[in-house]
Predict the 3D structure of the following.
Amino acid sequence: MLYITGDTHGDQNKWLAEIHPILQPGDTIIIAGDFGVGFWNGPQGSEEQFFDWLQNQPYTVLFCDGNHCNFEKLEKYPIEGWNGGRVHVLRSNLLHLMRGELYTIGQKSVFAFGGGYSLDKYRRVEGVSWWPQEMPSAQEYENAKRNLKQHENRVDIIVTHTAPAASVYFLSTLYRFGIKGNVVEEFPLTAFLDQICASVSYDRWFFGHFHIDFELWKNQTAVFNTIRNLETGEIVHQWESYESF
């Protein structure tokens, strides 16, 4: 089966209690950003020990980057071709879906584009808990447009970390979520995703970042405390939040 979930933020306890028990041999799960590279130290050991443990599991873990990620560490992993696109290989079954790449996963074409802006940047330290690569470069935007054009601007699934600008604004009008409207610093990315939304034909779009689970317009779904079927969007598991923020 193909699954998707939202930000895991390097939380070993959440992974072991909520995600690992759902996955069966041969399954694949995608994390829609903020997987948490650089932050996986925990009660089960160091990050590298945890990644070694994941490598011994019979399922595949794929993730977009988000804004809470040690990009200096992530960028040191080798880049290889995988299922039609480029990935950073952290382990044989733990792969980073790079910005603007397209993949064939199962029988589905998947476009991935990570990145986002950290609203909590003010309390983070550059090179320790925050990295400027959280926002995409001009080359990454061009790579995305080029790859989509080669596929005639048609994909089955889009996975991003943040959402298109119009969707961010829509979510900000739902006051119960407490989501800010388009943040100036993130707007170059959300505006780009607006362009993708307008020009690319897709069946489903999943994103994380906002720490909510919500189905909104244009076949877009925010994921956080749920695991969903990637093809149908159906919730297969849900839990109470592990985050205190």
Summary: The two ends are 31 Å apart (CA to CA). The first strand starts at residue 2 and ends at 5. The chain is about 20% helix and 25% strand. The longest helix spans residues 138-150.
